[in-house]
Amino acid sequence: MIEKSLLGLTLLWLAATVAPPAVAAQAGRPLLIGFSQDTLANDWRVAQVDALKRAFARYPNVRFVATDGRGDTARQICDIEDLAHRHVDVLLVSPRDALAMAPVISRVYRSGIPVVLLTRRAATADYTTLIGPDDAAIARRAARYMARQMHDRGNIVVLQGLPAAATTQLRTQAFAEEIGHYRGIRITATRVGNYLRGDAIRATEELLRQHLPFDAIFAQSDSMAAGARIALRKAGRDPHATLIVGIDYIQEARSAILDGEQSASFTYPTCATTAARVTMAIAHGKRVPKRVLVESILVTRENARRIKPIF
Fold it and tell me: pTM score, two decimals?
């Protein structure tokens, strides 16, 4: 209770002392943009931070700082609080846990610091804008694509991302709802892979040990799709014989698609260029939409050579 009271007092102080970003921009002082990243143990998230650094480097008089939550919700909450204490003019955050991190995001926003949610939602309306693709729409498209490829018959396993992340929740629910329209297809298992290769390898090995039937894998990231292929090969099972669909469209996925070891992927941009543009608009006092959608493209063998991987 004491800690909460002290934090509330601190944020009230911040609200009184931190100049609005438009004031900072007009005064000519450097803008400080902070980004709270979930983890840098994931290659897509490393690529996102690197892309943001490049995007903000194009703007004069801007200082960009990023933190690494190291895959720990409590640590990421502390990172956000620290960025607020450092008087960031705009806070960007990709929340590891949509529910647990909602209070701190709300408090920072209510203190007067604009908050940009980058690719992941939080369980609060207290933010300035959300930037990213439509995760539910991607999952529904994946379900329809897989149903067509399977001729409306067979078993699917789902390799799920980080369970507490909004992206995971949206992808899981929408995929299950859409695939439920196909009576000849069922989801035989859902296993957590946390968007990591190693965890996906272990999850797929467990499925194989349990002899659960599956003809297809919906991996909620291409890193997990890669992990699944490794586990299949170790078990003597040819990945070509399993329909595998992922999300992100990294170089590894493109190679697998062209080699026939993965059927499809959906591009999931880092959104860095859009995030920088929108953040700078906020910093100069302009109004921005509450939701900024970024396009996602279905990539198969037919168009993989034409579409550049995310990284």
Answer: 0.90
Query: Quick one: which of 208, 201, 119, 193 has its CA closest to 160?
Result: 193
Among residues 170, 115, 132, the alpha carbon closest in space to that of 293 is found at 132
Q: Which residues pair with 245 in a beta bridge?
A: 218, 264
Q: What is the pLDDT of residues 75-88, one digit of tens each?
A: 999 999 999 999 99
Cα–Cα distance, 164 to 159 (Å, whole number): 14
The bridge status of strand 62-68 relative to strand 31-37 is: parallel
Q: Is 113 exposed, middle or buried (0-12, 13-18, 19+ CB in 10 A)?
A: buried
Topology of domain 2-133+270-295 in CATH is Rossmann fold (3.40.50)
Beta strands 264-267 and 298-299, pairing class: antiparallel
Angle between helices 2-17 and 73-85 (to 10 degrees): 40
Q: Which residues lie below 8 Å from residue 186, measured CB to CB, with a gap of 6+?
A: 155, 156
Question: pLDDT at position 165, please?
Answer: 97
Same fold for the pair 2-133+270-295 and 135-267:
yes
Distance from the first to the final alpha carbon of the chain: 45
- CATH class held by domain 135-267: alpha beta
Domain locations along the chain: 2-133+270-295, 135-267
Contact, 18 vs 85, CB < 8 A?
A: no
Tell me the torsion sign for CA atoms 239, 214, 191, 210. Answer: negative
Q: Express each pLDDT in 266-302 by its tens digit.
A: 999 999 999 999 999 999 999 999 999 999 999 999 9
